[in-house]
């Protein structure tokens, strides 16, 4: 199987959302809770993808709407763990324990919990208390052990801003290639960049090997303020045209880049247009000044208060570059409130302008204004439904450059309305690497497939054949296009891969995996166990050591640490490990309850894998619990319909949670046209949202519906579930092609 790459910021994958997304547990002051944060999140014990889908909900209201319980689990707010203390926690009761490493192996399935893991937990509690003296004691007691770096890390991180680059560098030298060394130096760089100590950032920059977006921007800021403008520009593609929410350090970097000698005036114009659309006053003033036409704050403030007044006087004022900027700013402010009002205004102004001998609006301004309308229209798809006008507005803006966000919006709108020439155009506006991804190769092939040109249709067939080599969502869709059939038996089926004794021994000898297994078996903080695991997988992948990863995954599987087994296999190129990547725990219960609910067991497994990665104790911040991540209000709704008394503990338990989850799947399946794609979207984002995204008139191909789902998290969720269900159907001996499974989306009316 073609597998995704290891998550970019692997050191915090266990504590991250998607993700494109809200960042780390790792903020500077650990006293905001090492143990409380780590343990609360550790209870989830899921992969990054699953964690993202569990921790976002669309509506946390407890109301029941239109016969449905609350509208799904999707919400864009970051996870906020609850304060946690162990039941037996007593501030003064913990003493450092001996920490000699214990590499004994238990039943060839995992490391025994050793005294190092016990000391780890006690030291974490000391860090929680901010007890520096205790941490010093643990450093001595745990020296040379498996977890020796942790008390030092926690002590230094209690006041990271006071640490010196030399001290941080020494930690990295003392604990080379460890995830906590990577984390400390990255935390330090962010902290120092945030306090404008760029010299300190530069001194540690080369020690950061696995930076996330915020850390990349911290490093770039360090170099930008040290005269190394070339290295500062490394982050340009990610921050310069980005109008979505991004880390504060990236916003700062983008602002500072304005003065970078490698930024051209054309670069400044491109960013200025987007800042005018977004209303970013500081950026607007800085960029316009560098372009020689400074926009006064007073003018922006006046328009912000009354954009209509500006449009009323615009026609009476002479043409000028200043007025072009102000027009786009005013258009953005109106569009934020009503894209419809903005569209009427633009249409009126263009008609009036076309009657003038000397036009007040340049072609470039017209295109930028249409771009504003297109972006804002796509941002309102959830509330107002979809409309082909978004495609037309993007087409009217074609000669202006596109950011990825804009090109993606254009493509999604064109896909929704089968505007295949526009799909091709939109994809051409993406960077070369993005165009090569399976997602956009698939849609380019879909567009070529509709062409009257035989050469393009032949090209589409070749593109499908290439995509069909993969077994992810788009690869499975491509298989159906070229008449291939996914067959799990060719990829090992339900047979676990054989692992040599030598590879098992290598897992035991690997300190990263050793720490992960020890923490897991000691029932210590799952966030730290996951982080160590993910780092171990990354290091093995860097070394192209798939055998080590598979051996570790097999051992994780053997002790029911299924989410990490899945994560490991998903980060290899091995194709014979379906039993590890798609396990089927609780099979008799899943099949029995699915049949009772009138749904496909493969679909149930597809949902379960995506929701919890088979972690029974998984719980999201909005209260979704168990294998099926059933929301409390949903569980009450289910219990009421089944004639049962609601019990939170029972609803969260394995068998009942499966029974409730499958019943609810059957419930929304029946209410949403017996359409599995709609029901899957409804399971994640709420049935009412799934209905809202249906076409108003006529049917729509399911792949077009999925690609145009307004919530990015739900969009990806549905793709993963359909992929999972297709694979599980083959594993269960009931193979069903993905396109047949997805079917067609009927009109809402």
Task: Tell me briefly what this model is.
This protein is mainly α. The protein has 43 helices and six strands. The two termini are 40 Å apart.
What does this structure look like?
It is built from 43 helices and six strands. It is mainly alpha-helical. It is globular, with a radius of gyration of 27 Å. The strands form three sheets. Strands 1-2 form a two-stranded antiparallel sheet. It has a two-stranded antiparallel sheet with strand order 3-4. Among the domains are: 437-486, no CATH class; 587-745, Lysozyme (Orthogonal Bundle), CATH 1.10.530.10.
Share of helical residues = 55-70%
Q: What's the rounded overall pLDDT mean?
A: 86
Total helix count?
A: 43
Q: Strands of the largest sheet, in order across it? A: 1-2
Looking at the overall shape, the CATH architecture of one domain is Orthogonal Bundle
Q: What is the alpha-carbon Rg in Å? A: 27 Å
The major beta sheet can be summarized as: 2 strands, antiparallel
Q: What is the fold named in CATH at topology level of one domain?
A: Lysozyme
Key phrases:
two-stranded antiparallel sheet, mainly alpha, 6 strands, Lysozyme, disordered N terminus, 749 residues, globular, single chain
Helices and strands in order:
Blueprint: H1 34-42, H2 48-54, E1 57-58, E2 73-74, E3 105-106, E4 110-111, H3 115-129, H4 132-141, H5 149-157, H6 165-174, H7 179-194, H8 198-204, H9 213-224, H10 229-232, H11 236-239, H12 248-257, H13 265-278, H14 281-290, H15 297-305, H16 307-314, H17 321-337, H18 339-354, H19 363-379, H20 381-384, H21 389-395, H22 404-416, H23 420-428, H24 432-435, H25 438-449, H26 454-467, H27 473-481, H28 501-509, H29 511-521, H30 526-542, H31 546-558, H32 562-570, H33 578-581, H34 587-597, H35 601-612, H36 632-641, H37 648-652, H38 654-671, H39 676-685, H40 687-692, E5 700-701, H41 702-707, H42 712-731, H43 738-742, E6 744-745
Helix pairs in contact: 1-30, 2-35, 3-4, 3-5, 4-5, 5-7, 6-7, 6-8, 7-8, 7-9, 8-9, 9-12, 13-14, 13-17, 15-16, 15-17, 16-17, 17-18, 17-19, 18-19, 19-21, 19-22, 21-22, 22-23, 23-25, 25-26, 26-27, 28-31, 29-30, 31-32, 34-38, 35-42, 36-38, 38-39, 39-42
